[in-house]
Amino acid sequence: MRAVVLREFGEPENLRLEEVEAPDPAALRGREVLVRVRAVGMCYHDIINRAGNLPRTKLPSILGHEIAGDVASVGPEVQAFRAGDRVATIQRVHCGRCDLCRRGRTTLCKEGVFFGEEIPGGYADFVVSEEQGLAKVPDGLGIEEASICACTIGTAIHVVRTRGEVLLDETVLITGASGGVGLHAIQVCRLIGARVYAVTSSPAKAARLKEAGADEVIVSPDLKFASAVRRATGGRGVDAVIEITGALTFDQSMRSLAPAGRLIVVGNLETRPVSFMPGLVILKELEIRGSFATTTAELSESFRLVTEKKIRPVVSRVMPLAEVAKAHQILFDRGATGRIVLQI
Questions:
Q1: Cα–Cα distance measured from residue 32 to residue 39, given in angstroms and rounded to the nearest whole number
Q2: What are the φ/ψ torsions at residue 153 (nearest 5 degrees)?
Q3: Contact partners, residue 145, CB within 8 Å, separation at least 6
Q4: Domain annotation covers residue 297
């Protein structure tokens, strides 16, 4: 089969299209499902992974965790899927057995494996997933749009609703708002009835953020936006920050919070530590929460919202698998608003 193989961490050119051995359908075990990949979305996580900044990734590696395609074959214990079903994956497959899985915290599964890290990902003709990592793609939903639903809409649901507990009429600031998670987090917030302030460093992306539903766009090329947020909220600050950018904006996000506000961290584009004043957290009784990945139920909920036309998946461009290095460069250069999808 064709696969984009990363044999050395570093530049986009290190991603090379090769012929490798395909998974053997006869060797499928237990709940394993062989998927013929049709589309795979690209996330900034892939950029970080390619650079060698994710310690679980061992070389050689096949990246890609936003996967959609057709079931080619199933293992002997699979019950929910059969050959020909259209399916999409979540980012990280949980075991279903550990104490965290039994408590419903499947994104934190002790035995969980991430596509493109511990297991081969979707930059290939075929991928193997256990069935609990899959959801059926509804009829009528394009396969390119389906591929990004877990990591954009599903992640947005997880960070905004599950971890952020955003409520009607609350104010929410979203950093990195023009990316895949950001554009869909805007839509999830608006669906709840929250007021959304979207931050971007690029004036050229402001119109797309308004189109996605942001009530106010704060253009901040130097990412010093806290004072603008406070002005926009009458000096109060926001109830919640969806922190997608991470270290680059962490301090400004903390300073943008209202008393009793909460910061939900879902991304960190630069894998470096942050510093903050504990006194700010103490005196304003702020909360800092983490948000990681997506559950299968949240992926199915994403599909429902899309088919009911309550949320629109934003695919900025579709490119062939052979142009993966070019696609990585576009993403690294912040040249995409929404998701780039590779056609397999």
A1: 20
A2: -70, -45
A3: 306, 313, 315
A4: no
Contact 50, 328 (CB under 8 A): yes
Q: Are 37 and 125 in contact (CB under 8 A)?
A: yes
Same domain flag for 254 and 321: no
User: Does any domain span residue 307?
Assistant: no
Which CATH number belongs to the domain containing residue 101 in this structure?
Answer: 3.90.180.10
Considering the domain architecture, whether residues 9 and 120 belong to the same structural domain is answered as: yes
pLDDT surpasses 90 at 271: no
β-strand pairing of 257-265 with 238-243: parallel
Residues 113 and 179 in one domain: no
Residue 23's domain comprises 2-149+313-343
Residues 105, 157 within the same domain? no
- 7 in a domain, yes or no? yes
Please indicate, yes or no, whether residues 12 and 136 belong to a single structural domain of this protein.
yes
Pairing of strands 126-130, 195-200: unpaired
Q: What is the Cα–Cα distance from 238 to 231, expressed in whole angstroms?
A: 11
Residue 30 has pLDDT above 90, yes or no: yes
Residue 117 to residue 240: CA distance in whole angstroms? 31
pTM greater than the 0.90 cutoff: yes
Residue 288 φ/ψ region, left for φ over 0, alpha for ψ in the -120 to 50 degree band, beta for the rest? beta
Is the domain of 135 the same as that of 216?
Answer: no
Number of separate domains in the chain: 2
User: Taking the CA atoms of the chain, what radius of gyration do you get in angstroms?
Assistant: 20
Residues 95, 31 share a domain: yes
- Give the residue from 221, 256, 253, 222 showing the smallest Cα distance to 237: 256
Cβ atoms of residues 145 and 315 within 8 Å? yes
Kindly state the average pLDDT of the residues 76-93: 98
- Coil, strand or helix at 191: helix
Q: Within the chain, what is the greatest distance between any pair of CA atoms?
A: 64
Residue 269 confidence (pLDDT) above 90: no
Mean pLDDT of 157-181: 97
The DSSP code sequence of 140-177 is T--HHHHHHTIIIIIHHHIIIIIIT---TT-EEEESST
Across residues 129-137, what is the average pLDDT? 98
Neighbouring CB atoms inside 10 A of 24's CB total 10
